[in-house]
Amino acid sequence: MSNEILHSRIEKRFNDIFESPPDVPSYINENLNHKMRPYQEQALRHFIYTQRSNVADVSFNHLLFHMATGSGKTLVLASTILYLFKENGNRNFIFFVNSDAIIKKTHDNLTNMTSSKYLFNKSGIVIDGELIQIQMVDVFPFLPAENTIYLKLTTIQKLHADLTNPGENRITFDSLEDMGIVLLADEAHHINTLTKSDKRKLSTKETEERTWEKTVNKLLGLNSLNRLIEFTATIDLENEALYNKYSNKIVFQYDLKRFMADGYSKNVVLLRSNQDDFNKMLNALLLSQYRKYIARDNGVELKPIILFKSNKIAISMNANNTFLTLVENLTVEQIESVITNGLAVYQNENSIWRKMYQYYEVQELGKIIRDLQWDFTKETTLNANDQSIISDKNALLLNTLEDLNNPIRAIFAVAKLNEGWDVLNLFDIVRISEGATGTKTTTDSEAQLIGRGARIYPFNYDGEVSYNRRFDLSSNDLKVIETLHYHTINESTYVKNLEKSLEAADIQYNEDKYERLEAKVKPKIRKMDFFKNGKIYINQVVPTTTNDYQSLSDYGISHNYLIEYDAAVEKKFGSNQETRSGTQKHEERLQIDRNLLQKAIQRNKFYRFSNLKKFVPSIKSMRDFIEGQEFLGSLVINVSLPVGLSTNSFSAKERLNIIEKFLSDSEKKIRLNYMKERGTQVFEGVALSQLIDDYVIELNKVSSKVQVNQVIKSRNMRDHDWYLYDNAIVNGLESDMIDFIIDWVDRLKETYSQVYLIRNERKVKIIEFNGTRGFMPDFLLYLKGADFTYQVFLEPKGDNLRLYDQWKEDFLMDISTNPNVVVLGENERVKLHGIKFYSTNPQFKKEFKEDFVEKLLGERQIDNDLFHLPLFRYEE
Length: 876
Hints:
Blueprint: H1 6-14, H2 26-30, H3 38-51, H4 56-59, E1 62-67, H5 73-88, E2 92-97, H6 100-111, E3 125-127, E4 130-136, E5 148-155, H7 156-164, H8 173-176, E6 181-186, H9 193-196, H10 204-220, E7 227-232, H11 240-246, E8 250-254, H12 256-261, E9 267-273, H13 277-297, E10 305-309, H14 313-328, H15 332-345, H16 352-361, H17 365-375, E11 381-383, H18 392-399, E12 410-413, E13 426-431, H19 440-453, E14 459-461, E15 464-466, E16 483-489, H20 492-504, E17 509-519, H21 523-526, H22 529-533, E18 535-543, E19 560-564, E20 585-590, H23 594-602, H24 609-615, H25 622-627, E21 636-642, H26 652-673, E22 677-687, H27 688-691, E23 695-702, E24 713-716, E25 727-730, H28 732-751, E26 754-759, E27 766-767, E28 774-775, E29 779-784, E30 789-794, H29 799-802, H30 806-817, E31 822-823, E32 830-834, H31 842-857, E33 859-862, E34 865-868
Parallel strand pairs: 1-7, 1-8, 2-5, 2-6, 4-5, 6-7, 9-16, 9-17, 10-12, 10-13, 11-12, 13-16, 19-21, 22-31, 30-32
Antiparallel strand pairs: 3-4, 14-15, 17-23, 18-22, 20-21, 24-25, 26-29, 27-28, 29-30, 33-34
Helix pairs in contact: 3-5, 7-10, 13-14, 15-16, 19-20, 23-26
């Protein structure tokens, strides 16, 4: 079976020097509420490329985005709506899926402008200067209004029923025949029973799904302008019938293996245990709260979620009651016993359990228990097996779990959340094992759930928000909030089947066990003069002082705060009608009641004077902070709310919630921005031998059957005299860059008397000029010339991180060209260079090569021909 799917053919075209990949139109990015990730933009480029074809109506009217769970398919979907509306004139869109829960979630994402997950620009969609409305409909109008996108959200079951049983206020095949429609199919694998079927007798469910596929195909064929765009994370291309159907329709493929390899997922760690369910729940409870504490200690506000997974509703309900009783009856003696036993069992310093027990060992356990009993109550626990889960209230709770004002901390479920559930702050999945089976069907379902829970939780740390893991190779405790722990039983048959299911789903998983990788500086290198007396140059930083923090603005906090009003209460007082004109809003100032402000401050521990004084040293009292014009005394809170609503009608609780939201946002900025250091253009030398030494990395043991590019491996470098260490502990991209150096090292040695490549194992950090962002380039290239010693910063960068980290490349370029760069005491003998990011992408690799050759070999490469140019001009 050939692997030449449409996606691959488009990629080849994009890499052709005679082909120009399309840009993403500016109106798309401008009208989205979230910045697109690089792979999402690439997905859209693939789609646009097909739609610009002269044969798009015939060859590319049916396309599929095969993208991993958690990769943001819905943002790509929203982008296709904007593109087809603007470029093709499509007005009528039918979104369908097989689940009511996904319909409710999608309705919120596409229409609720106050939702954190709203996909479009909250200020309104504007294209060519015109405000575009999105109108939800059951039937498309015969005479559509100008500048309006009509969107029908339905289940595939209801769509099929409406079309095959015509009735009042239902769409019909005849009514759709003369209007171009776009069909948007989410979880599209559910409509392929007809394609997959063989000669065996179909079940009742399969027969129903078979008719759905016929209905969709008939809709697509009604009009040559129609489009069918499918989205799924699950398609079995090993099935020959499915492959034949979709090989020329998969416009973009970004599967889970690639998603995890690019660092967009949490690390998945299996925690096997022989404990009973009670102790397993207790330890998961402590681990979840440990995450919250670690996040808080690092200025990250986090509400971690635990999911307790059972295979029967009765077992889940019983576990729910057991859990609540457990929390209510916690004692200091009980926690002390757990800590003592845990420290005796878990000896490896890198084990998450040992880290957790060591943390609690030095805490006031009475306070820990009080916190647990406050955070985990009946009101903060949701049982998804209850019939009430289908209510709008509970559906909203499940779709907004990341929101800090959403109270839920624990969920008990059987199977209702496996598909369509969208949550980022799920960190612990606990398998309740009573009566459980280890069949492949069970473990396949659990693997699917793990895949959903593995999506990364983006958080602001050190002034940056990242959608990628940052601490894989770091000892930073925040690694715990880049990890999903699956607490499972230690039963051989079950574990074997679970591992098979994870491997089949391409989920890279680890265990709470570690592999030791060691790199030693070569003895010969240690004896060399350059190692004993050489220097590494890093730029100086200027510390801020307490005098730099005299007002809220010094922490990056505006005295004018704008908040979106929650749509859940978009209702005029005294009326039962909800306001639906969400795009028409106005801003109104909230009158801040002194008593409510004081109450909000009292409810947030951060603002207790003894703690606040540590971060805001210029205040003398809480009265200073509340009344001072530099702080809350000049605070103005404006509320953006629908026309027809006024802040005057807000209840005291609503006002309090708004003030608390401001204080919460301000706390983050105060923590993050206090006493930051600024980078300068002055570099100073630090003894090379002081920064470069042997190092050891202990990594979670990764499943050997799921190999990805980002798996860290040890590469033997003993035969390469120019590499400082005996081994290179690198991922696939970094290893590829070393291969590049191998290809060019002889040319470098012709120009320089000494050539050494140094792995920067989190020792050398440079801070952007006049800014606070810093990073540690992966490699340093040391070159000794006749007149100068060169220190060159090298940074391999995956395409998934290129846009996000563009500032780093700009900084590296600035190091090379900035005339104000000074190397203390070495200006006449040392030159610093930054090279463009290294990449395996053909175009970016070419740019790296040209920059590398021009700066380090005094040559410029044009059309692969080299000619010599002087690298530096010196004045005698």
